Amino acid sequence: MPLVIKKKCVSCKKCVKKCPVDAISMNKGKALIDNDICINCGKCIKICPVKAILKNKEIVELEVESNIKSLKKGLEKSKNKKSRKRMVKNRMRQLKMQDRIIRKTIKEMKHLKL
């Protein structure tokens, strides 16, 4: 699903007008995408004049970058190699847990009767 980078949004409302399912609204002068309504057509991404709306691949890259930056910041505060290793292992465990939750949720969603 597309993601709006609020700092970049200039409130032009072009994405709001272009969205075929009215999944985009304005909140405090910034575009807001309702992911429950969005059909991931990409029209908002193409129309945005300041590239404030990211596509899936860019969101993944942004999240990975953010995770690594956060981990490095924590590692800088750590006192020794052993605690840094523990910190990395702990973060990996957390991410693996999130992955299991997501995979199980997707599996259950496939069994939903609509």
UniProtKB/TrEMBL annotation:
GO terms for molecular function: 4 iron, 4 sulfur cluster binding; metal ion binding; oxidoreductase activity. The keyword Iron applies. Coiled coil: none annotated. Residues 74-94 are annotated as: Disordered. It comes from the Archaea. The keyword Metal-binding applies. Transmembrane segments: none annotated. InterPro entries: 4Fe4S_Fe-S-bd, 4Fe4S_Fe_S_CS, RnfB_subfamily. PANTHER family: FERREDOXIN, OXIDOREDUCTASE. This is 4Fe-4S binding protein. It comes from Methanolobus zinderi. The lineage of its organism: Archaea, Methanobacteriati, Methanobacteriota, Stenosarchaea group, Methanomicrobia.
